[in-house]
Each structure stands twice: as C-alpha cells, then as structure tokens.
Amino acid sequence: MVRGPVRGVSRSYGRGMPRSPSSPAFWRSPLRGPWFTSVLGVVLLGGITVLFVTGLVSYAAYNPNLSPVNDMTPDKGLLGFYLFSWPTNPSWLYRLTQGVHVTLGITLIPVLLAKLWSVVPKLFTLPPARSLAHALERISLLLLVGGALFEFTTGVLNVQLDYIFPGSFYPLHFYGAWVFFAAFVAHAVLRVPMALRNLRHLRDEDQRPRTDDELVAPDPAPPTVSRRGALGVVGGGSLLLFATTAGRSFDAPLRETAVLVPHGGPEPGGGPGGFQINKTAEAVGIDMRETTGETWRLLVEGRGRTLRLSRDELLKLPLHSAALPIACVEGWSTSDQWWRGVRLRDLAALVGYEEGTAPDVLVESLQRHGAFRHAALRYNQVRDPRSLLALFANGEDLTPDHGYPARIIVPAAPGVLNTKWVARMTFGEL
C-alpha cells in the first residue's frame, strides 16, 4: 500500500495556496509515481510497436504502388519507402496480421488510458521548458498524447463502421500513425532508460525514490487501492476487451463472443452462403434483376482482344477449387470457404497471355457507389493457381451478397480486393 508523501516534502505543501492544474498540489492521487507509469510504458512499448508494424503491413497489402485505384494515400512520398509486393502465401497471412492489429489495438485501450492518466500532471508543468532536453520531451509528449488519442479513436470508429471524421480514413490514419510513432520513438529514447531503472530499483511499489519525482503527489489523498491493484483493474479491462473482440477472427461459437465489434454474433443466415460479408448488394446499389440476370456479361480485355462471356460460357471453361478465407481491414475474418470457378490466369490466357506470363489485372465491379469499385491485382496474384473468378461458394451458386454472378477470390488479399459483382477485367500493364 502507498504509505505517505515523498521523503522530505511536507504534507502541508499546497495547503492554503491556489490549486490549479499547474500546481503539484492539484494532483493528489497516491497511485501516480514512476513505478506505475513505467510498468504501463513498457507494456505500451511492445504493444504499440506491434501495432505500427502490422498497420504498415496492412497498407502494403493493398499494393498501393500498383495502381492509383489501390492507392488511398497518393501523396505518401517518402513514407512509402517500405512498400513491397504483397505475397499470396500463406493464404491466411492478412487474416493473421490484421486480426492482430485490430484485436491488440482494442485490447490496449485501458493500458493507454491509464498511462495517459498517470502522466497528465506533466502536461500542465510550468515553466513549459527548463532545458532543451526538457523542451524536446514536452513536445514529444504532446504529439504522443494527441497522436495516440487520434489513432486509437479513428481506428475504433473504422472498426465499428461508423467513421465520422471528414476525408478518408486511410490517409488520416496513415499520416497520423507516422506522426504518432515518430513522437513515440523520441519519447521512448528519452524515457525508456529511466523506466527500466525504475522497474529495477522500485520492485517494491511502496519504495520511494530518494529524489523528488514530478509524478508523485506531494500531498497525496488517502489510498483506496494499491498500485498493483490498479494494474490489476487495467489488466482486467484489457482482458475483457480481448475476450469480447478476438472471436471476430473465428467462426461460431467463438464469433458469438465478439459482442463489442461488428461482424460478431451469430453467423449471418445458414447454408453454404452463411458466412460474413462486408457490404451487401443493396448497400452498393446492385439491382439483381437488371444487372446480374441473363443479360450479364463479363468483359475480359487484353492485348487488343475483348471477350464478352456469359455465366453459362464461364461454366463451360475448366473449373478449379480453392479453400481460402476472407479477411477485412476491420479485423474480422472467416475460416476457409470452398470456392469454385475459373482461374484468373486461364482468363488471361483467353486474351493471349501464355501460361506463366499473366500480367497485372484491373477488376471493375457493377456496384454503383462505395469504395473499391475498381481494384488492381499484381501478376503474382493473377498467376497463383488458387486465384479464381469464383462462381460458387461451398458447393452452391454465389448468393447476391457474396457477389453473384462472379467475384474475385485471391489468397492473402484484403477483403476489398476480392471484388464482388465483377463486370470487367483488363489484363496488362497498369
């Protein structure tokens, strides 16, 4: 338990004087201190690093350097130095990386809030800067706090499909991540050595540092919980969020535990098409009677050739099967579904590309509005034998919401690149 004030500091400090946020006496919680803050900081050091890396990986998965239609942040400049061609193996790669990114981000919210609460007195410290090092720390702290709140808030809103900020989620979250992580690195360089010393020398939570610490209340209120107890509450909150979020990456009955996130709860409907979707035909303006009936034709173009194929004509081509999951940027995914259709590389062959030479492809959807009406796929994705223009799912015709009459399914690709209601495919340099 916390026993008393910092050694050498009178408990009468601050009594009888104005208490403003810039006054140490304003902050009286006995929980604040170097040990409490250091434990939370070390947890966030590892967790936020994983979040940043998996976030960058998620952006690379869209292959933004391939085509303008894939690039949601066209002015990224040098910030895109790391981008690489997204692989197709293992097929569950994006399911893993984005599932970790979203689930970990939500799980860390209690830790982040507790950390911000533990250091809030520093935001009001006067004078603003006592030295160059102190000024750099204050600036990094302001950027860190603002960046953390912005990134976690926009991320949660995007996950909930209730994004309300102006502009696109992608550039705001992308640029915000770089600003936040730059401040995070600067702050870590300045503070991690001290945090590690605090953890080594303050293993007993009641032990006080020999020198004054600006986080320790000079006139603390009576303790109601120990610091370890407070950490238990924070950890319990994180475990609760994990337990009510992680199920989104699995099938029933685990998906039913994901009560705090979309695409949780029971499987949508039953039968072969009873697995999660990210957008319905109605939501994107698909009129099943007018656009996907007998008059529907798939336009396949390349090397100066244009083919118009009906669904019956596609069914006469060699059909192949692949077991692949669907995984979306919101962090939800399905287990492997059994898809059957025409290989993308076989469609490329129909317009003159020999086996093994299939190029990139631009895919266009019938959908009238919404993001990713067009999407580009790299040649390695086109050439993978599991990449299909799917006509069936789990042994039955595609349902309208799963992309009837035909949809793309590619191993390891984000869900929005698995274009539904395909209308046109253009093979060639993009």
Automatic annotation (TrEMBL):
GO molecular-function terms, A-Z: oxidoreductase activity
Oxidoreductase molybdopterin-binding domain residues: 292-427
CDD domains: SO_family_Moco
Protein keywords: Membrane, Transmembrane, Transmembrane helix
Residue intervals passing through the bilayer: 35-62, 100-120, 141-160, 172-190
InterPro entries associated with the record: Mopterin_OxRdtase_euk, OxRdtase_Mopterin-bd_dom, OxRdtase_Mopterin-bd_sf
Positions of region (Disordered): 1-24
Signal peptide (from-to): none
PANTHER family (alphabetical): BLL0505 PROTEIN, PROTEIN-METHIONINE-SULFOXIDE REDUCTASE
Protein name per the record: Membrane protein
